[in-house]
Each structure stands twice: as C-alpha cells, then as structure tokens.
Amino acid sequence: MNTARKRRPWRILIPVLLILAALLAYGFWPSPLPVQTASVAKGPMTVSVTEEGKTRIHSRYLVYPPTAGHLQRVELRAGARVEAGSVLAVLTPEASTFLNSRARAEALARVDATEAAVKARRAEAQRVGVSLELARTELGRMDALLQSGAVARQEWDRAENQVRVLERGVQAAAFALQVAEHEAAAARAVLTKGAIPENGESVPILAPVNGYVLAVMEENARAVTASTPIMEVGDPSDLEIEIELLSTDAVAVAPGAHARIEHWGGEGSLAARITVVEPGGFTKVSAIGVEEQRVTVRAELVDAPPPGVLLGDRYGVQARIVTWQGENVLQVPTGALFRHGGEWRAFVLEGGKAVLRKLAVGRENGLEAEVREGLAEGETVILHPPDTLKDGMRVEAGKL
C-alpha cells in the first residue's frame, strides 16, 4: 500500500516532464526561413537588345552652285518648305568662267558624267521596280501557304520584310533619279548659251526635289566654287533610325527583325523594323574610355508619330530590337538563379524544404531565363535566396 502511494507521484511527474521537454524542444527548434517563391511555367518569351540611336532622313540632297561665282545672301533657313524648281539662292557667275577653254572642257565632262549617272539611276529604278513586283507576288503566294499551315510564320515575315525593303528601295531610287536628272540639267545649263549670262546678271539656284531645308551651310554673301555646298534639302517624313550596336549584339540581328522605338520624346513607343545591318564594323571609344567594336544598324518606322508631333533629323531615341522569340518556352525568373561551382543552380521548394537543383539555362532577357534541363513546369522555385539558405533547410513561402 505504501509502495503504491510512493509510485503515484512519479506516474504524474514523468508525463509532466515529457511535456516540458517537448515544449523546450519546440521552443528551441529553428523556425522555417521565410522566402519568396515563383512558379516555373511555359509561355511566350522575347529576347531583345537595347541601344541608343538617332533619327536620320533617308533621302537627302546637297545643293551646289552650277559654277563658280559670287553667292548672294541666302534668305532661307532650316525648316523652310521648298518645291522642286523653286529658288533656293542666287549666284552671280564669274565673268571669265565661260571664256576659259579649260573650264568649258570641265563643264563638258560634267555633262557627260551626270548624263551617265541619269542612265545608271534609271536602270537601278527599273531593276528595283521589277524586284518589288516579284517580291509582292511571292508574298501573295506566302499568304495562301501561311493560312494552310504549309509555311512557317518566320518565312512569311521574311517575305513581308523583303517587300518593305524593296518599297523603300523604289522610293530611294526615284529620289536618286530625280536628283541625277536635276544635276544633269544644271550641268547642261552651264553650256547653254544664255543660261548663264556673261554680263554679270544673276542666276537662280533651284531646288532639285520637294522637301524642307535641313541645313544651310552658306548664309552670307561670298565667293564660292562649284564644289561649295550651299544647303541640304530632304523630306523629314522619310525617316529611318540609325543605331550603333555592339558587334556581339549585332550578330543576332537580321533584316526584318522587329523593334520598338522608345524615349523619343512622345508618349508610348513606335513600332519599327530593321532594314539594314551593315557588314562592316568600326571602333568607338565608350564614355569610360573603353574601345568597342560597333556595327551600324538601320530601321524604318512602321508607326508614324502622332499628328502634330514632330520627329526630325538627328533626334535622339532608344531602340529595343528583338533578337529572338519563342512561343512555348519553359522559363524561370532570373531572380531564382545563381552560380555555384561554375554552374547554374536554383532552390526548389519540396515538402516545405529548399532543395538545391542544378540547371541548364538557355536564353535570358533580364527577367526570365529559358530552362533546358533541371526543372519541370509547375515546380516552385525560391526567389533571391539568401546566403544563409542551405540545401534541405525548412522554409516557409510567401512570408516576406
């Protein structure tokens, strides 16, 4: 009886001690590390390169005097609208210009050269016109094949871009032909009796094309030669974008690539398309004094600026050029990736624990990276893992 009474306190005390031990263990047990997570998913992915650029009027013309003489003060200023055949400036030829046999021989040679240029420009315009008709026919055939699924979208895009490039080429060829004809007419006028008077009378210098005065090189009255540029004329609506890409970025850019023109001064961005990637590069010193190999890339605007908004010549812009696109790409946020042992790694959330996983990563755009190996769609990864996180540690998602 006494023995049973002595044992009762221990029967009560032992469970109490066990409970206290469990509470102490729970209190000192490390709590799960709070982390932020994201899911691995498939979807469209775009990789692009961004670089500063500037606008440039595609077709521009330098106006020269037909012969040496005294240029009167030029009244036109940059921005003035001019029509083909309108007076740009007035020149008083030198009295002895047409009495010099050597000068006459030079004028004859200039006539021959300008007429040959007209023939070459006319042939080029015809060639580009024929190429455009063939490209349009090919694009029409591609339209039918695209609807039936017999051709890839990329092939259709290339055919459409070829049409756009040739349309721009037709415009440029027509402009070049018009300029060549004007130069030939000016050269012939020098040799035409009475076209350039020898009694000190003035001769008008006429606009070769419709457009605007882009720049005036000679404003004041002074003596000039036939090789002195007076002003530059062009059409501001005929704009292209000139971008100087790093050669390592330019290798991924091809004619027809899509681009967005941003930070151009207006609202939103403007769609553009790459037309030319120049085959040669050049060396340029960066702002921090590092030599870089650059390549000039040109793009045409697909979207025009809104009405009333002026985007002129040599305006600064930022171009974002698409170098690759995918439709059903397995991708992970780049914030989940880190380098370990020279390889890409990520922590995957499995059963409340962080599991270290080795990955094979492909293309990335700064926000997302293409996953080639190591992750499956729907898995959860830990974003911006702290240095204290180790493989197998308990974590709690969504508590940051």
Automatic annotation (TrEMBL):
Sequence ranges assigned to domain YknX-like C-terminal permuted SH3-like in this UniProt record: 329-396
Organism: Desulfomicrobium baculatum (strain DSM 4028 / VKM B-1378 / X) (Desulfovibrio baculatus)
Domain of life, per lineage: Bacteria
The protein, known as: Efflux transporter, RND family, MFP subunit
Pfam families, per database record: YknX_C
An MF annotation (GO) of this entry: efflux transmembrane transporter activity
PANTHER family listed in its UniProt record: HLYD FAMILY OF SECRETION PROTEINS, MULTIDRUG RESISTANCE PROTEIN MDTA
Database matches in InterPro entries: YknX-like_C (IPR058637)
A Gene Ontology cellular-component term: efflux pump complex
High-level lineage: Bacteria, Pseudomonadati, Thermodesulfobacteriota, Desulfovibrionia, Desulfovibrionales
